[in-house]
Amino acid sequence: MTRLAKSLGLAMVAAVALAAPLGAEEIGSVSTVFKAIGPNDKIVVEAFDDPKVAGVTCYLSRTKLGGIKGAMGIVEEPDDDAAISCRRVGPVQIAESFRDGETVFKTDTSLLFKTMQVVRFFDRKRNVLVYLVYSDKIIEGSPKNSVSAVSLDKNVAQ
């Protein structure tokens, strides 16, 4: 492999890493189904800060299946088991402009082809940020979703 190819490869990896939304911080979980082998099924509550809007944190609850497949990371999580609640946790400042429908958070929910993601919209008329969580697959997604809204001060706008 040439030096140029290696440099381009490293640059692409860095660009993807920088463009990807930050991961979530686990706040807590509750066990829902006992599994004799492997971890139990549970509901996990995670928090993540909006990377482009300082002062907004979203809390996401979702299922994590356990058992042997869950322990190995090859289980396919349910499509419809997620809820979101976003809140102001400090002074809100939009750090950089964004487009409606931009991904704020994304996580894989199966070994291949399935993700759960949170996207952001700006309701200019009401000066409100709207966050939507949904699951998708390459072949077939789920229409089930959850939404949360954060009202902004009059002086905060994109």
UniProtKB/TrEMBL annotation:
Q: Which Pfam families match?
A: CreA
Coiled coil located at which positions? Answer: none
Going by the entry's taxonomy, the superkingdom of the source organism is recorded as Bacteria
Q: Does the UniProt entry include the keyword Plastid?
A: no
Q: Which UniProt keywords apply?
A: Signal
Query: Where does the secretion signal sit in this chain?
Result: 1-19
What is the official name of this protein in its record? CreA family protein
Q: What is the lineage of its organism?
A: Bacteria, Pseudomonadati, Pseudomonadota, Alphaproteobacteria, Rhodospirillales
